[in-house]
Amino acid sequence: MAIHPEAGKKADPRSLCNIPRLMSQYFTVHPDMSDAGQRVSFGTSGHRGVSSRGSFNEDHILAIAQAVCEYRKREGIEGPLYIGMDSHALSEAAFLTALEVFCANDVLSVVQSGLGYTPTPVVSHAILTHNRGLGDKDTARADGVIITPSHNPPEYGGFKYNPPTGGPAPTTATKWIENRANDLLENGLAQVRRMALRSDLCHPNIRHEDYVGRYVSDLRTIIDMDAIAASGIRLGIHPLGGSTLDFWNAIVDQYKLNAEVTLPYIDAAFGFMTRDHDGKIRMDCSSRYAMASLIELKAQFDLGFGNDPDGDRHGIVTHEGGLMNPNHYLAVMIEYLYTSRTAWDADMKVGKTLVSSALIDRVAAGIGREVYEVPVGFKWFVDGLFEKFLGFGGEESAGASFLRFDGGIWSTDKDGMIPCLLAAEMTVKGGRDPYARHLAHVERYGLPAYGRIEKAASREVRTRLGALSPNDVAIKTLAGDPVTKVLTAAPGNGAPIGGLKITTDSGWFAVRPSGTEDIYKIYAESFKGEAHLEAIEEEAQAVVQKVTKS
């Protein structure tokens, strides 16, 4: 992967996103419904787009919000709708647009007091707290929306829906909402109900609640906050200008932590960020380029961590290791949690996505836990966490959630804050920081070399990749090793991968077509070093060419 010469450096202010123009385009640009890229499209994390491209505009939000209202009615959901938004500029505009539709449809919307920003996991936590004790058909159930494009650049907007189970909606729900929203757009939004609201959002259908206080006070049920506070461990916290800022300030104050929020303000242009690997401003807390400003300060703290703008991803910085590889930290969390949470059921499985490191499989085997492997997307962990047959669910892109001390549900969506606090807990209670724990894994299980490649692909090629069966792939060896599995469905839940995964005892690769771009992605890993990884990647590309040729 080519690295941009300005990666890890702050952007020239003249190159930053023009926020006033962006906001104007949200209201004045209208989507061309004959262009697939301008229609409502729910990927693994909701609908995302850019106003100047006609893919995230007021029209989209009016249609999606109305579709959500109709979906709730269809499903018999009459409880409150918990709403969160992150600090992207378009999130502010979309938040108000959506509220106008929700109020007109007599939906009780719950927003943060003071109209502050609310992370994704906090909305999930609020939904689950409200629904505790309610049956799956109870009309009083709550659900929620989070208005965020996650870690995407400043010009992006995004919109996610979480049903009463608290996590990302299943495909059946998102496809229904997507189709209905596009119908509304094609009919000129004639069936959208909307009403004007006062600037203070004082309306009978809007309830202002203290999301911050409820979430922060509840942390004692999932993290040993007293041990962290008593230790005096020095913590550096970088919210990347996102929705976790007020939450981290409250956590530090309430629990009297020896911590410093290194960037205590919001900037919609994210001008404080250092450029990512490709030169773009991207608030990716798992990227050493985007996290360069915190990594530079690592000597000042015993442990550092950061989150992306909607708070559903984590980045862990240690003295010796710098920014940890997300896969490595997932494995560390798994071992620590399943050996320290003594109230968890002994048969709880470990949730991982099929493109996460096989190091997780080796660590899980070492502690006697079964791995539950699912396709890409955190939505596949929702049922497992909700029904508590998973104690932990994590994905390679630095997203994870886990259960409370007593095995109760915390969040069925990714929570970037609890993995950060867990890093502090394991450091002070076990005497080793996460990187030292990772080194112990390397000594016992081997060092994985992990890579990802993106390749251009036509719609036809992507369609073929998405429809493969094991019978379509004739392969006996991979990079010199016998093939042990050829998968087109995830072994954990049997759900289609939408691609292919081939494994050996010392490595694997997976290929997935993008649902939104004309590319496919190859993920690969080797426990024999970089040269072996390159051999796997080369053979993976040859396999793709063979199975997709005319």
Describe it:
- The chain has 550 residues and is α/β, with parallel strands linked by helices.
- The chain folds into 3 domains: 15-209, 3-Layer(aba) Sandwich (Alpha-D-Glucose-1,6-Bisphosphate, Chain A, domain 3), CATH 3.40.120; 215-445, Alpha-D-Glucose-1,6-Bisphosphate, Chain A, domain 3, CATH 3.40.120.10; 449-548, TATA-Binding Protein (2-Layer Sandwich).
- 33% of the residues lie in helices and 20% in strands.
- The chain is built from 16 helices and 23 strands.
- It has helices spanning 19-28, 58-75, 89-104, 120-131, 171-186, 211-218, 225-231, 245-255, 292-295, 326-340, 359-366, 382-386, 417-430, 434-445, 459-466, 530-548; strands spanning 42-43, 46-50, 81-85, 109-112, 143-147, 156-162, 206-209, 235-238, 259-261, 303-307, 314-318, 322-323, 349-353, 371-374, 390-395, 399-402, 449-456, 477-478, 481-482, 485-489, 496-503, 507-513, 519-526.
- It has a 7-stranded mixed β-sheet with strand order 1-2-6-5-3-4-7, with helices on both faces. A 5-stranded mixed β-sheet has the order 9-8-10-11-12, covered by helices on one side.
- Helix 10 (326-340) packs across helix 14 (434-445).
- The longest helix is centred in the last third of the chain and has 19 residues, at 530-548.
- The protein is globular and about 65 Å long.
- The protein starts with 18 loop residues before the first helix and ends with a helix.
- The mean pLDDT is 96.
